[in-house]
Structures are given as C-alpha cells and as structure tokens.
Amino acid sequence: MDRLRQDLRFALRLLWRDRAFAATAVLTLALCIGANAAIFTVVQSVLLRPLPYSEPERLVFLTDRFPGVGIDRAGTSVPNYFDRLMSVTAFESQALYQFNGLAVGEGVAAESVAGLSVTPSFLRVLRVSIHRGRGFTEDDSREGRDRVAILSFRYWLRAFAGSPDVLGREIRINGERHTIVGVMPDGFAFLKHDVAVWRPLSFGAQERSEGQRYRQDHDQIARLTAGATLEQAQQQINALTERNYQTAGALKPVIVNAGYHTTVVPLADDIVRNVRRTLHLLWAGVLFVLLIGAANITNLVLVRATARMKELATRQALGAGHGRLARQLLTETLLLTVIGGVLGLVLGSWGLSLVSLLDLTDLPRGYEIRMDWIVVAVVIGLTLAQGLFISVVPLAHLAGLKLNVVLHEDSRTGTASRGSGFARRSLVTIQVALAFLLLVGAGLLFASFRQLLAVDTGFKADRVLTGVINLPQATYGDAARRNDFVNRAFDRIRQLPGVAAVGATNALPFGSGAGSRVILPEGYVMAPGESVISPNSLRVTPGYFEALGVTLKRGRFFAESDTATAPRVVIVDERLAQRFWPNADPIGRRMYEPQLGRPDEFVKRGPDTTWLHVVGVVGAIKQQELLEGEQSRLGAYYFPYAQNPRSTVGLAIKTTADPLQTVNSVRRTLAALDPQLLFSDVKALEERVEASLQPRETPMMLSLAFGALALMLAAVGIYGVLAFQVSQRTREIGIRIALGSDGGSILRLILREGAVLVFVGLVIGVAATVALRQVIASQLYGVGALDPVVLASVSAVLTLAAFLACLVPASRAARVDPVVALTRQ
C-alpha cells in the first residue's frame, strides 16, 4: 500500500509537470469515453435491459402476416384471439390492446390525451397490480357496460391532484361519460409513456363472427405457460392456422395465396425490431472512436516514454528493477485513464440531457433511457481496459531497455528505436483506417438522407394545417349528423382570413388511422397462385386533394354532388391504376370490395355486390412514411367521405401564410359549432413529414459527429508522429541541408512519409468497408454501400486533413538551421 501511495504521488507530480501532455490525454479520453457512455446508455436501456414486468422472458407478441398482399405486420383479429384463448395451451394468459387518441373533459376544458383500450386480461398478462381501485373485469368488456376507465398515475396527479376519492367519479371521454374505477401504479408504461387513460375493449357478436377473422384491428400479447417454449406456442398457432385454412371454404385459395400465417416472437425483440441494427451500428461506431482515441494516447505515451529513456535508465542504474519501473509507468497511465473515465461519465451524463434535442424519447422504450449501474460498470471496465491497452506499447518498449546503450547514447545521433517508430506509425495507420470507415459510414448516411429528402410525397406540405376531430358516438351516431357537422364546419372555416382551401379525411398523411381493404376491378381474373392486394382505403371530402396539392392525373376530384344518395364513386391512385389497367383508361371502370363474409365474391361478383365507379386517378401519396417498403406497391383508393362518413375527421387546411397562425381561429370556429369537440393532434403537415425522418436523421447526426471526432483524432495522431520524427531527426536533416538539400526537398521528404501512412490506412479502410458493405447497406436508401462519390469524397477529406497535419512538422523540418542542428548536444 505504501508503494502504491508513493507511485500515485510520483505519478501526480510527473503529470503536473507535463500538464500539456496530461490535459491532451485526459480530454481525448473524456470525449471518447463520454460518447461511449451516452450511446451505451441508450443501447442498454432500449436493447439490453429486461422489460420492467415480472418474468419478461415469458412475454410474447403475436401478429398475423399476409406477405403475398404486401402486409408483413397486420395485427390480430377478434375471432383469432378468442380461438387462441380456447386452443393454445402454451399460453398462460392472452390479451388484446389498441392505442388511440382520446378527448377527455368537457367544453373548452377538454384536452387530447393518449389512450389504450385493452381486454380485462391485459394487466394479468403483464402481472401488474393496480395502485388504487381495481382493474377491468369481464363484465366491463360487455357492450353497454364498458363506460369505465383507469387513469395513469401521472394523469391522476395532474388532473385530480392525486385525490384519494377519485374512484367513482365521472369523466367525459370522446363526449361520453365514463366512471373511474382505478389508478395505474406510478411509473407503469407499456410501449408508450404518455398513455393517460385506459378503457376496456368490448366485442359484440358481429366482431366475433367468422366474417371478421381477417380484419386485423388489434394487437395481441401473451404470457407463456411455465415450462412452455416459444417453439411449442408457434406449433400450436400453426395448427390453429391450418384448421382455419380447412374451414375457410371458397376463401381458402385467397388466404393461401396471400401467404397468411401468424408468428410468435418475444415481446422484447418485437419492440426493438426497427432500431436494433441501427443502435448496434452506432455502438460499433463509437467503439471505433474509442479505439482511435486509445491509439492516439498510446502514441503520446510512447513518445513521452521514449523521451524519458535516460531517466528510466538512470533509475534502473540506481537500483530500480524492471518491475518497479513498469509499475510506475502503469500507474501513470491508469491514473490518466481513470481521470479521463470519470470526466467521460460526466460528459456522457450531460450528453443524455440532450435527449430531447435528438428525440431519443421517440425510440422504443425511449422513456426508459437512463444511466444505471450496469452502464457505469461497463464504462469503468472500458476505461481500465483502455488504460491497459495504452500501457502495453511503452511497457514492451521498457522491456527492451538496455542500460549501457541508453546511458552512453550520443544524443547527437538523432536516432530512435526502430521498434518504437514502427509501433507509432502502425498506430497512426490504424487510426486513419478506422477514421475512414467511420467517415464513410457517416457520408453514406448523409447521402442516403439527402436521397430521402428528395422522395416525392405526392402532396405539397407547405402552409397546410392539420388536426383531428373525433365525433362522439352519442352525439354523432349516424351518417347524416356527421355529414351535417362537416359541411357546416367547412362553410365557416372557408370564411376565415388566410384560408385558401379545406378538406378532410379519416386518416391524415403521416398520422394514424389508415386502413386497407381488398379491392378488385370488374372482370379481373387472377392468375393461378396470384394474391389479392390490399391497398390503403381512405375517405376524403371535396377540397381535400386540393388542400394538399395532389396531382390529378385523369378524370376529376370529388364534388359536392357526391352525396350519400348519389352513385357510389371511387378515385384510385396511379399505382393501383397501373396494377389493374396498365394499358387502358381507368375512368368509367367499375370496382368492388369483396366481403370476407361472402368469400365467393373473391372469384366472382355476387347479386349484392356494391359497384364503385372510377371517376378519377390521382398521384400516389406517401401515407405512412417516406419509405413504405413493400406497402408502396399496393396503391390506394378513396371514397367520398359523405358516402361512408367516419367518426374521425382529419382536417387539412391550406393557408396563405404560416398555418399555425390559423389554429386559434379554427378552434374558435369549431367550438362555436359544438363546444364539446376537441381539435387535437394539431400540426403543420411539414412537421408530420419531418417527424417521419427522425429515425434516420438522428443516427446520421450522431455518425457525422463521431466521424468528425475521428477525423480530428487521426489528424492529431499524424501530426504527433511526424512532429516527433522531425525532432528526433534534426541532426540528420541538418546534415542533408549541409550536403546540398534545399528546403523543398526536405519538405517533400516529410510529406512523403506522412503520405505513406495515410495511403496504407486508406487501403485498409477501403478493405474494411468492402467487408462490411452488407451491414452498411441495410441502413441506406438510394445509395450503394460502395458509392464512388462518397468513397472519393471521404478519401479527399481525410487526405486534406492529413496533409494539413503533415504540413506543420514538414515546414519546421525545412527551416532547420544546419549549423544549429550539427552543434546541438
């Protein structure tokens, strides 16, 4: 212990004496460790930490899939859920859930909150105990008896000040009165942290009927029975699917060709399915930054150790053994890394406070992101490992220390150890290779993001205000009342200053609520094995396409004459038109929606078939996201809102100025029509588009930051190696100048040595990029993993940075005075 204290005191004195070196090393370590601490906190919170429920490894997620239709994730139907309750013994409990937006309160005091409708078994599946009151019972799930609600803990505190007598009180939800029966426990969340109100799901005979089997409107979770495996559950689900195949009758070839099946996956895996690979790549990138930083500091330590060889040799001559000297070097290095690691943890914690700027809370489980003891332990482990790594080269250099050689070395020879020189150059080469790889990744993500920004949404998002109105069933229970309200609202909104056009739909672009249905044209004969398709199905009012600036390709938009009593009409987008009428004019053609309850309609029309007359073709609109994958090939079709009005009314208002300036006047107008209605989810349409880019924008910004840090560290590394070499070769350079070499030749000599380091690093970096191209390609859109423009640009940037780093020591070498160099001791 005494020796340790002596080593620490001696190390502190040495580091204080060499403050420039210590500050550089600590700052580099802190930046690298801080970046790792922040990113690993995200990875740990989102990917690695178990779900906050009892025995989370037994929780699974079930989803129906129709790959032939282009729907890889459909949800679950009510009939399937009840069949599974009866037949799947591998599940201890099962539940359905459905997220929705709710208007809570009355009149001007109403507010929009996130809601979650669940079956009474939901809390049983998650094994969550209610904080106050009770959970939902089976009686609550019966039609007419489902007007009960459970509040989140935070909403209870905010809206009711945590009043203990909240149970039994009534609140108005979507215009209907509900009785509060419970309060959720503090901190409880499921997938979303902002859910304020839970309501029970109730299903009538119609929803349970066979005709609803392939109407997947809900999501399902389940808990495996103790001892049951995922494979057993999947086998039982497959058997149930096969049974449904055999009883499907005329519908069987349709669902077989659609590839219909159900998958059972761990709930934890399903939650992070879209971000797992991105977070792994970010973690790998920040570890590369750590390696670059370690290589940089190792070079600094090696240079410092080389300069201290005579001191170490003198101490050895006075009786200090190799072990004692090695322990002293190790203590100095570990002290540096520990200080840098502690500062890195502080920087990482500070970086997490910027979560709101990066919208990391929108990540799955983003609301759980916090630095815990596992993160701290891993960071400490990385710090110590880095300290040991940094110590390896100088300790190896010390092991080769020869007392007589060092003590009798003539400082004027200007020579240095070949081994240490090779080690320094190798470390710089590794830095260049890793920096190239990081910069290529960042450059590709940036190029991909630019391609994404250029994607045509099919509409003009500028100066469009959007928001949602939910018409309560109690007040607007029939189609006539809904149509009347929409017509009156439009008449008044059109008169507001700055409003150029107004329209409505049941599902706004980049919002929620969009559904899909199978549709077929008259006379269309499917080829053997061909699947039906299920395009997006929406209801829109006259003025909607005009407000969004959607292009009319053929025919007409909907008109005021397309009322509930007028002939049934439909508008298709150009993708759907190309699918069904590739070489013909769709205008005037007829289409129909085959009913699942009448499976014969999938192969031929029935006597009760409702025909839809195509009156227009519009440009394709991106409905869910800019990259819709396989969904983009399905297309969309639109009904006049008046012919089948829905309770959800998504307003789209084109304005002549900033759309957000119109919000208050629109709210006053709607309140004058019905003070109970809430205009919620209000955003400029541009905001919705920008929000859809966030999952790709955040990784790109982080990658650019890591790349810039790697570039800076690599440049510093090159500068450090060449500067040290120049200082060690001052006598040699003086001799060259004395023998006739001019400053230009000396400049080229040093630059050439730097160029060799950069060239070798670039070659290794290109090889690594080729090896990892498939991993990189999974995160790109519209650009290849070996895009020549990106590779050339990164090579040019790295070469320029290296040239600038080489220029200072090269210029210094070119200005060496031979007289001074030859006479220097």
Structural features:
single chain, 825 residues, alpha+beta, eight-stranded mixed beta sheet, 26 helices, 49% helix
What is the element layout, followed by pairings?
Elements (H helix, E strand, L loop, with lengths): L1 H16 L1 H30 L10 E8 L4 E5 L2 H10 L3 E14 L6 E8 L3 H5 L5 E2 L14 E4 L1 H8 L9 E4 L2 E8 L11 E6 L4 H4 L10 E6 L5 H17 L5 H6 L3 E6 H5 L4 H32 L1 H9 L4 H31 L2 H4 L14 H27 L3 H5 L10 H36 L10 E7 L8 H16 L4 E7 L9 E2 L3 E2 L14 E5 L3 H5 L3 E4 L13 E5 H7 L9 E3 L19 E7 L17 E5 L7 E8 L7 H11 L5 E6 H44 L1 H9 L4 H29 L1 H5 L10 H27 L3 H6 L2
Parallel strand pairs: 4-9, 6-8, 16-21, 18-20
Antiparallel strand pairs: 1-2, 1-10, 1-11, 3-4, 3-10, 5-8, 6-9, 7-8, 12-22, 12-23, 13-22, 14-16, 15-19, 17-20, 18-21, 19-20
Helix pairs in contact: 1-12, 2-10, 2-12, 2-14, 10-14, 10-16, 10-21, 12-14, 16-21, 16-23, 16-25, 17-20, 21-25, 23-25
Describe the structure.
Helix content is 49%, strand content 16%. It has 825 residues and is α+β, with helices and mostly antiparallel strands. Strands 1, 2, 3, 4, 5, 6, 7, 8, 9, 10 and 11 form an eleven-stranded mixed beta sheet that branches. Strands 14, 15, 16, 17, 18, 19, 20 and 21 form an eight-stranded mixed beta sheet that branches. Helix 1 crosses helix 12. The two termini are 41 Å apart.
Number of distinct beta strands: 23
Helical proportion, percent range: 40-55%
In angstroms, what is the radius of gyration? 34 Å
Span of the ends, CA to CA? 41 Å
Query: How would you describe the oligomerization state of the chains in this entry?
Result: single chain
**Which blocks of ≥5 consecutive residues have pLDDT under 50?**
410-416
Can you give the mean pLDDT? Answer: 83
Percentage of residues in strands:
15-25%
How many helices does DSSP assign? 26
Report the sheet with the most strands, covering strand number, pairing sense and barrel closure: 11 strands, mixed
Gross morphology = elongated
- Structure class: alpha+beta
